[in-house]
Amino acid sequence: GYAREAASAHPANGQALSLLGQAQLASGDAVNGQATYKKVVDLSPSAAAYLNLAMAQLISKEPQQAARSLEQALKLEPTHPDALASLATIELGNKQYDRALGLAEQLQKAHPKLEGGYVLEGDARLAKGQTAAALALYEASYRRNPTSALAIKLKNIYAASGNASKGESLLHQWLEQNPRDAAARLALAQAQARAG
Questions:
Q1: 127-162 per-position pLDDT tens digit
Q2: Dihedral over Cα of 146, 88, 50, 37: its sign
Q3: Contacts of 81 (CB under 8 A, 6+ apart)
Q4: The three-state (H, E, C) secondary structure of the chain, written as one string
Q5: 170: closest CA among 182, 159, 160, 162?
């Protein structure tokens, strides 16, 4: 379509190539999307270009290559919030909890108003077995900016701590305000099914 025509007409134009890469990824063509984003990085290296390449690599299930691309993005823009958060998430998946924790703390320092850094710190602390610290981070973040994902995380941590009713109550409250939230509804139904 349009993106392919623009990239063909302007093969050295990073914006045209980025548009093509987005179209390729949206259509499920991760292999060509990744190749296109590699061209963008070669033409005009930027944190955004490396971030797009990393996302294509993640879609292609290549987390190690994505981590390298995110490192490149952070060399160019050390406080890029999406690059910090994405790299922390990859490190959590690799069980590099201290590294993930450090990235979460960098994100908090650079962008204190973004909840992602606090949630990622909670995820890292939970993975390290620091349940009370994770719970405190999730609760504080939920008070500042309640989301479905946080409501579900809190429900899970309350259940794991032996206080399933508190988690279910929180999800009920969330669903009263957000009745169309299918993920929260499913989490509540699963919790209730497990409880019998």
A1: 999 999 999 999 999 999 999 999 999 999 999 889
A2: negative
A3: 107, 110, 111, 114, 116
A4: CHHHHHHHHCCCCHHHHHHHHHHHHHCCCHHHHHHHHHHHHHHCCCHHHHHHHHHHHHHCCCHHHHHHHHHHHHHHCCCCHHHHHHHHHHHHHCCCHHHHHHHHHHHHHHCCCCCHHHHHHHHHHHHCCCHHHHHHHHHHHHHHCCCHHHHHHHHHHHHHCCCHHHHHHHHHHHHHHCCCCHHHHHHHHHHHHHHC
A5: 159
Instruction: Kindly state the tokens that stand for 135.
Output: 């719970």
> Which residue is listed with tokens 């602390």?
125
CA distance 156 to 172: 14
160 phi and psi angles, rounded to 5 deg = -65, -25
- Closest by CA to 16, choosing from 44, 58, 47, 46, is 44
Torsion of CA 97, 100, 106, 107, to 10 degrees: -130
Q: What is the pLDDT of residue 23?
A: 86
